[in-house]
Amino acid sequence: MIVHHRNGSYNIHFQAFEAPQGHHVIVSDTNVASVFQNRGYDTADWITLPPGEASKNLQELAKVWSQLAARRVNRKTKIVAVGGGVVGDLVGYAAASFLRGVPFIQVPTTLLAQVDSSVGGKVAIDLPEGKNLVGAFYPPSEVWIDPTILTTLPDREFRSGMAEVLKYGWILDAVLLTKLNETDLTPAHPELAQVIERCVDLKRQVVEADEFETLGIRAKLNFGHTVGHAIEQVTQYQVFTHGEAISIGMVAEAIIAEKLGLAQSSLAQQVESSLAKVGLPTRLPSSLKGSLSAESLVHAMRLDKKADNAGIHMALVFQPGESGLVHSVSESLIKEVLTQLWNEFEHYSP
Ligand SMILES: NC(=O)c1ccc[n+]([C@@H]2O[C@H](COP(=O)([O-])OP(=O)(O)OC[C@H]3O[C@@H](n4cnc5c(N)ncnc54)[C@H](O)[C@@H]3O)[C@@H](O)[C@H]2O)c1
Ligand SMILES: [Zn+2]
Fold this sequence. Notes:
CATH class of the largest domain: Mainly Alpha
Largest sheet: 7 strands, mixed
Bound molecules: nicotinamide-adenine-dinucleotide, zinc ion
Mean pLDDT: 92
Number of strands: 11
Helix content: 40-55%
Number of domains: 2
Number of helices: 12
CATH superfamily of the largest domain: Dehydroquinate synthase-like - alpha domain
């Protein structure tokens, strides 16, 4: 299947990976390189990073820059990022900065990267002071998506990507949401490719309408992320995957939307059951009660780069498929909701 969207710089194909024509450099991580090697690709020339978020740093970026210099990369060389969001973000920033910008192709190999990070042009590395603190808007010239590559993905990573997939349904597409609620998607499911395609299309539309996140449209993609990022940060990215944290975040933010009178009182329960169905956590585990206080989470939200002097903003869902940015959500309301969000409360009652 080849689907071709062309608009501005977004050129997204559904196709299996093939080394591009002409001078190119492929950068990946060691896990992904073995997956490709097992599929018969010659990966001997690939530059590889150690897998995981810990590699998305200045030291690994500097190594990639040196390798690009050693391989005489010029402004026509194609830099190809083959991997999950970590590889895509770091290699994208390397491509944005090397020689002030060289052509860059994304080949996303996780569900999260296929539906989210490879589309939209945000590239970055982490600093010890925080995640994604140094980066750029640098859209890839092409994105090549092959859903069959997801069959080797660990279950936990697949579920993590499903959190973002469900997010698209909740914020933008009630029809997609119904389909997700009725289907048990797995990496080998025949309908997965279609679902990925729909998510990519939704992300592309949002990014085209508000590329630099100034109009409140792109901000909708942050549903679950205000609380989710705070959970990730307070637990130092050690406990939850990104998808798991935003899953809990989506439930918290759905409760907040209810309490603000912006959503019907059944919304949070519906959000929660859609996430629980795919095996995602929806509550803060009570084992972390000592370290994950409502106060520490709200403190992290205040410092988030999307907060400003006017307070904490959230992308909230009003009803399935409809959402918007809500400014200055009260800190006491957020704390009240987070104080209730432990997993011993089986039934949330508004
Ligand atoms: N740029 C953006 O807009 C954007 C959006 C969302 C997330 N992100 C970033 O993405 C990163 C998370 O990305 P991720 O969830 O893809 O994590 P990841 O890149 O760390 O990949 C997860 C794990 O899966 C392995 N893997 C990847 N593809 C595989 C395959 N096909 N088979 C087997 N194993 C495979 C990787 O080696 C890694 O161990 C974070 O750094 C986050 O900040 C960026
Ligand atoms: Zn996300």
